């Protein structure tokens, strides 16, 4: 009897252990895998490829998530707003208040080495300033479908002094650099422009500029100063035009005492990591999901209209011929109705 009870207990433990899978992540486990490892590893989830997994971490690289029935958690490093019609929760760039369903998790927070630099005490500003040999660095390779501001800032600054370009785009450094941080560390300023501007969309660019002990020239998240110390970087959103932002950069570059003062400033406001970026904050978010009974954790609409919505998305994603037929029929009905 004792052996049987032990076997039954082991079987029950196996059956009740919660499972998780990752889909639509691009190559490998992608951003969902990083989020899972960084903030949800303590919850003892068993990773699986089964479609009946209890929890489904997914990103924006497809619609396979529609084939999984579990509690869905959206994560992404790109500027993509979660669709809460198909996702129960999201941990991405949006700062929206949506009950217990959303958590602001910008990509910057998923670069542990660069992010840890933001929490350190600043090094001696005089030593940093004296180590600089270049005016400004820019490391970008792909500007397809990107904001024209990224080109404009490079052109305007280049009219003042040479800007060292270490990426594939307009490279003037003998080819793409192998060590971005070492390359940027030679510069007094580093251009840290996102590929588009959107509140909350804050990637690794700012953190890696800071890691290079340079003054970031930032554009992207217009609310960045709510978290980071505005005296430590140039926020292009503070100026009506990039022309005026460049004039400010030129003034800082010409005033050595002001430049070194900025190098001495802590990265975070008040010199402390905000709670919204703390590991504890993210672990509490995921604990609120995994700590409740599975059925109670669902948030998306799984009834009639929720199912209809998913059915239409599934048709568009996996049956394009059928979707084309539906569109043709819809247009014919509209045409007949307008006669």
CATH topology of the largest domain: Rossmann fold
CATH homologous superfamily annotation of the largest domain: Glycosyl transferase family 10, C-terminal domain
| CATH class placement of the largest domain | Alpha Beta
How big a fraction of the residues is strand? 5-15%
Structural class: alpha/beta
Low-confidence stretches: 1-15
Q: Tell me the helix content.
A: 40-55%
C-alpha termini separation: 80 Å
Q: Which strand order spans the largest sheet, edge to edge or round the barrel? A: 2-1-3-4-5-6
What general form does the structure show? globular
Average pLDDT, rounded to a whole number, is 92
Write a structural description.
- The protein is globular.
- It folds into two domains: 2-108 and 280-299, Glycosyl transferase family 10, N-terminal domain (Rossmann fold); 122-265, Glycosyl transferase family 10, C-terminal domain (Rossmann fold, 3-Layer(aba) Sandwich).
- The longest helix is centred in the last third of the chain and has 19 residues, at 320-338.
- The protein has 339 residues and is an alpha/beta fold.
- The strands form two sheets. Strands 2-1-3-4-5-6 form a six-stranded parallel sheet, with helices on one face. A five-stranded parallel sheet has the order 8-7-9-10-11.
- Helix 5 packs parallel to helix 8.
- The model is unreliable at 1-15 (pLDDT under 50).
- Helix content is 40%, strand content 13%.
- Helix 5 (149-160) links the parallel strand 7 (134-138) and strand 8 (163-165).
- It is built from 13 helices and eleven strands.
């Amino acid at each position: 009897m004792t052996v049987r009870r032990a076997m039954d207990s082991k079987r029950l433990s196996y059956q009740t252990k919660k499972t998780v899978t990752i889909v639509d992540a691009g190559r490998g486990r992608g951003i969902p895998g990083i989020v899972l490892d960084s903030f949800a590893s303590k919850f003892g989830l068993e990773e699986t490829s089964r479609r009946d997994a209890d929890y489904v971490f997914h990103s924006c690289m497809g619609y396979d998530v529609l084939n999984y029935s579990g509690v869905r958690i959206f994560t992404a490093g790109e500027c993509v707003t979660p669709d809460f019609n198909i996702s129960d929760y999201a941990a991405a760039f949006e700062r929206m208040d949506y009950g217990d369903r959303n958590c602001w998790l910008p990509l910057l927070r998923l670069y542990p080495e660069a992010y840890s630099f933001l929490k350190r005490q600043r090094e001696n500003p005089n030593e940093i300033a004296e180590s600089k040999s270049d005016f400004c660095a820019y490391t970008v390779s792909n500007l397809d479908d990107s904001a024209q501001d990224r080109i404009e800032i490079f052109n305007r600054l280049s009219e003042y002094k040479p800007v060292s370009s270490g990426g594939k785009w307009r490279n003037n450094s003998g080819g793409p650099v192998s060590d971005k941080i070492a390359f940027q560390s030679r510069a007094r300023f580093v251009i840290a422009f996102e590929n588009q501007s959107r509140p909350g969309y804050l990637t690794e660019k700012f953190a890696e500029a800071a890691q290079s002990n340079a003054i970031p020239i930032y554009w992207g998240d217009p609310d960045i100063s709510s978290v980071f110390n505005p005296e430590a970087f140039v926020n292009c959103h503070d100026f009506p035009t990039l022309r005026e932002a460049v004039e400010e950069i030129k003034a800082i570059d010409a005033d050595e005492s002001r430049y070194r003062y900025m190098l001495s400033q802590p990265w975070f406001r008040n010199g402390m990591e905000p709670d919204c970026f703390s590991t504890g904050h993210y672990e509490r978010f995921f604990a609120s999901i995994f700590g409740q009974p599975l059925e109670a954790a669902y948030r998306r609409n799984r009834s009639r209209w929720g199912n209809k919505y998913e059915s239409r998305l599934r048709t568009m994603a996996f049956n394009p011929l059928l979707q084309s037929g539906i569109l043709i029929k819809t247009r014919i009905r509209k045409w007949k109705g307008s006669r």
